[in-house]
TrEMBL record:
A Gene Ontology molecular function term of the record: 2 iron, 2 sulfur cluster binding
Name assigned to this protein: NADH oxidoreductase hcr
Record lineage: Bacteria, Pseudomonadati, Pseudomonadota, Gammaproteobacteria, Enterobacterales
Domain 2Fe-2S ferredoxin-type: from-to ranges: 1-54
Pfam families cross-referenced by the UniProt entry: Fer2
Length: 54
């Protein structure tokens, strides 16, 4: 994933998690609706196993 900030502030790495468990350390640039739909910032997403992304 190409992202300049690597800190969850630019939003360039926004992606949707279809399945899998994860924790996040930043949702700064995501709306509540995006979070509810499963969007994460890849640079701030910490997989707990395999993830399926869209």
């Amino acid at each position: 994933v190409v992202a300049a900030c690597r800190a969850g502030v630019c939003g360039c790495c926004k992606t949707k998690v279809v399945s899998g468990e994860y924790t996040v350390s930043s949702t700064m640039t995501l709306t509540d609706a995006e979070i509810a739909e499963g969007y994460v910032l890849a640079c701030s997403c910490h997989p707990q196993g395999d993830l399926v992304l869209a």
